[in-house]
Amino acid sequence: MKCKLRKWKMEDAPSLAEALNNKKILDNLRDGLPFPYTQEDARAFIEIMLEADGHTTYAFAITINDKAVGSIGVFRKDNIHSQTAEMGYYISEEYWGKGIGTDAVKQMCEYIFNNTDIIRIFAEPFAYNEASCRILEKAGFKYEGTLRKNAVKNGRILDMKMYSIIN
């Protein structure tokens, strides 16, 4: 299934809130998102993304038929890493296993490499998140290694995997 990336719109708040009211998704993201996730939370996120520095934050809705079904972002690092960026993404559970994640990651990399001076994009999924690791591999990312005991999520100490793609 093909998706399209586009800038966020305030009208995306209901579908964003619906997607993030899912513990299976939240358990694979970094901390800081409230649960339950309300439309007010979604509107605040969208506003922040729309006002973000366009040189450091590249954030898009992943859409199917113009409905937001996920989120993808690339966030530029600074100092000696200013041409390196971290990618994060998620897809609504009803769209899992349909190739949307891989398609979105490929589109985002193409956009970043064609429109910025970023030369390296990396992602750090939890090691147990095999689906996310597979998305990255299918999108051309290379596995660089395991970051042992790199995070604490839901009271558990977890390994993360490092993947990157180079322009």
TrEMBL record:
Pfam families: Acetyltransf_3 (PF13302)
Superkingdom: Bacteria
Record InterPro entries: Acyl_CoA_acyltransferase, GNAT_dom
Record-annotated N-acetyltransferase domain positions: 11-163
Alphabetic keyword roster: Transferase
PANTHER family documented for this protein: ACETYLTRANSFERASE-RELATED, N-ACETYLTRANSFERASE DOMAIN-CONTAINING PROTEIN
Protein name: GNAT family N-acetyltransferase
